Each structure stands twice: as structure tokens, then as C-alpha cells.
Amino acid sequence: MTRTLIPRDNILALYNSSGQDTLQLLSAPADPSGTQPEPGMDVRQPGIRNRSKSAAKSGRSVKHYKGQTPDANRIAGTADQQTPGSARPDILTGLYDRRHFQDQCAELVGQARAAGHRLALILMGLDRFKDLNNAHGYKAGDEVLADIARNLNALLADGDRIGRFGGDEFALLLSSPSDESDVMSAVRGLLEAATGAMRRYMPGLKSGASAGIALFPDHGSEVDELIQSADMALDRAKIETRGQAQIFEPHMRDATLDRLGKLAGFRKAIENGEIKPFYQPQMRLSDRRSYGFEALARWVHADGRILHPADFKIALDDPDAVVLLGEHMLRSVSQDLRHWRSIGIPTCKVSVNAAAPELRRGDYAEKVASFFAANKVPLSQLTIEITESVLLDDMTSKIGRTLSDLRKLGASISLDDFGTGFASLTHLKSYAVDQIKIDRSFIVHLMTDAHDRAIVRATLSLARGLGIRTIAEGVENAAQLKSLQMLGCDYGQGYFFSPALPADQAGAYFAAHRAYQKAQLHQFVVPSVV
Q1: How far is Cα 63 from Cα 172, in angstroms, rounded to an integer?
Q2: Distance between CA 298 and CA 314 in Å, rounded?
Q3: 206 vs 192: CA distance, rounded Å
Q4: What pLDDT is recorded for position 469?
Q5: pTM higher than 0.85 for the full model?
Q6: What is the Cα–Cα distance from 509 to 501, expressed in whole angstroms?
Q7: What is the dihedral of CA 181, 182, 183, 185, to 10 degrees?
Q8: Which of 204, 375, 407, 428 has its CA 20 to 30 A from that of 247?
């Protein structure tokens, strides 16, 4: 009789994931301790079964974890021996990774569909995990993730599944919830477990996680649809009820589709050239000469409507859209500066706003240089404006290095909305800043509020001592202008001088106001442009 040896991987391919796990257990080397796991037991999550208070209330049988952290080295070794189709745990936590968790869910969804059972898929995201990493380091963050994995695993019942979805998100599938109250009871225990682990490093934390819930078959008949629904509910929980859980509702999908539609429309507007830089003049206050501009994005529709950033804020909250807008603005500004030079407009400075997603990219300074080099415009004409919130996000100094690279290339750095954020003095000490912009909130009541006037005076004095230029935003009347002149502010911008203008009118404005005209001390040409 002739025998044909079939490769082990081919045999495994004939079985589903649970059958593959069983074959793996049967063929795995003996455990050095002399004990072999029982078939069907999750070898990645050892423990004994017990009951918790929340589970006892709903009748759910749960696992109580012994307290030891999963042995990452042992887990990694096991994963290396597995075939491509078998379970590959998340090395840090010992839980299912995202792909295998979804495979497990697909199997359970198929079983639930055939039996007419309900399921609950939960996505849980940590609310302050980034702050924890920034304050205590990534090692502490890793310890918290492993601790949370252990705590969550202890609360799960037989047949439930848990995985790490990456970053600070965990995914759980409850296999036998009786009703929504049963699900919410279980989720409360999960959120408490996560918060407890976070409080080790952040004692004053009120809540450490939020959760989104999708129910099968109500909110999706397939795994991908359930995950999508739970993700939408999680987003809503983080926005509206941080520290709580939200069950998916159909209107959440409508809101998501609306947001995606608006983002698509914004990207198309950029491609069609409908997003344009408008330029608000910046004036030197000592002699009222035109100094430069701040470039502001405007959406110019075909019917003549002009939308301001507040009208497309949803796009400005999306990191990818912000990067796309930033590149478009830099390209357009450099082209306008080239055109102005070609028609004899004197050289001027232009400020362009930069957001954290742009500055975190390692190639931002290189891209800025390439846009200006392509139009043969020196970077000495460019000022990059950032807000203090951008600097607060610079825990790895990546943004600091980018700003330093920009200054080496010749660009100036301006700190916008000065005085409204946190640790302003620290930022002035730690970062090379050429200019600070005094927020309009301090200028509005400059003539009537003694506190605002004192803040402006102190800011100007501080800037002079550090050799930093100052510019006041929101100058609306002659009284504010005169007061800022007396206090020694260098520059100003606002509707008293002009609103933001399209490129052709901005160039003409600069040429008209470049020279000092004594006969027109307080007269400025203000075009009728919104």
C-alpha cells in the first residue's frame, strides 16, 4: 500500500479556527510544568472560573484572573510556532489580535444566526491614555494596557471573546446577553476595571474609558457591520458622555455619512481650486505702513458665496483634510507671492497657519521649502503661525525639531492666540519664537477693562525683553489703535484696517499702503469684501 504524507499546514487548512486551535494543542510540545491545557481552553489566558457581583446579578458565569501578567516571552514563542491561519495573540496583552478576534466573532455570529441567539459587540477606548503616556512614559502605558487586559478577562463569561484592537482600544464579544440591561451591567464592570487600572498612575481620574455597543442582529448582521456600528457609538460616547457607554442608534450612521460626505466635498473643492487664500493686512503701528498679511482659507463657491473656516470646521477637525489643506495653502501662497513680484508689488511677509497633524509629519519643513523653491520665493517672506495647543502636543519634541528646521531655512515662527493657552512662558523659553500674536479677546475691551490692559502691557514688556515682535489681533477702532501705539505694540490686524482680501485686491492694498502718508494718519482703504 502506498502512503502519501500530507503536510501539516494542509491538514490545518481543512479545519475552522477552533479545530485548528485543537490540533495545535495536540501537536504542541509538552509544557515544562508537566500540565497540558484542556482542549478548548484559551491557552493565552490561563485562570480559574469564578463569579463577580455584576455577573451574579445577570447570571453570567465569568472568569477570575489569578493576577499574574501574561508571560509575553512565552506568548511570543507560541505565536512563532503557529501557522498563518492560527491565532496570533497581541504580544503585550496576550489577547487576540484584531484579525483573529474578527475571525472568532465571525464564527460566533454564524452560530448565533443559526440558533437565533443575540450577541453584543463592545468597543472600549481609554479616555486619557495619551495623557498617561505623556506624563509617565510608554512603559507605564504598556503596564496599564496589560493590567486592563487582565481585569477585563476576569469579567468575561464562558464563550465570550476579547481582543486588543490596537492602541488604546479593546474589543469584546458577549456571547449570551439576555437583554440590554444585562449588556449594560457587564459594560459597567468593564469600564470600572479599566478606570481602576488607569488610576494607578492618575489617582484623580474620574473615568478612564468609554464604550460603544452594537447588538446582533439589531445593529448588524455581519461582523464588519457590528464593528462599524460599535465604533460610531464609541465616537458618540467620547464626545457626549465620556466615561459612559453608548448603544448604537441609526441616526449615528446618518451623522457619520454626513461627515464623510462633507469631507469628500471639501477635498473636491481643493482639487477644483475653490479653496483660496484670502489675505488680511498686517500693519506696522508706529507709522501705519503695510507690513504683510495673514493668509486665511476661504471656500469660494461658483455662485459667489464665500465660506469661512467656521463653515467647514468638520474638515478642519480631520487630520488628513488638515494636511491636504495646509499643502494647498502653501502652494497657493507661494504662487501668489511670485505673481505679486512679477507685477512689481514690493516684498512682504505672509503668515500661514500650521496645525499639529502637519507639523508632526517628518517632511513638513522639506515640503514648505519645495513649494517656495518651485516658485523662486525666499522663505524669509514666510511666517508659520502655530497655537499653544500645538506645542502642548509636542511631547516627543518632533514639532520642536520641525520648527527649528523651518527657522534654519529662513522662515519665521509666530505664536498665535498668545495668553489663551497654558505654559506660555515655558513655550517662549523652550521654542525659538520670532513673533507672538496677542489674542483678540484681550483687545476687544482694551479701553474699558483694566485687567485686559494690564495683560497686554505685561505681554508687550515681556516680548521686548525677549526681543520678540508683537502683533495685536482684532483691532476694530481708532481708540484701540492709539492705545496699542502708546503701549508699544509693533503690528496690528483687524477690520479697522481691512477684512481678508482675495489675492488681486491684497496686492493692490499692499502697494497703496506701503508708503507712509502723513496726511492720512487714520485713513485706510477698506474694500467692500466679506
Answers
A1: 14
A2: 14
A3: 10
A4: 96
A5: no
A6: 9
A7: 80
A8: 204
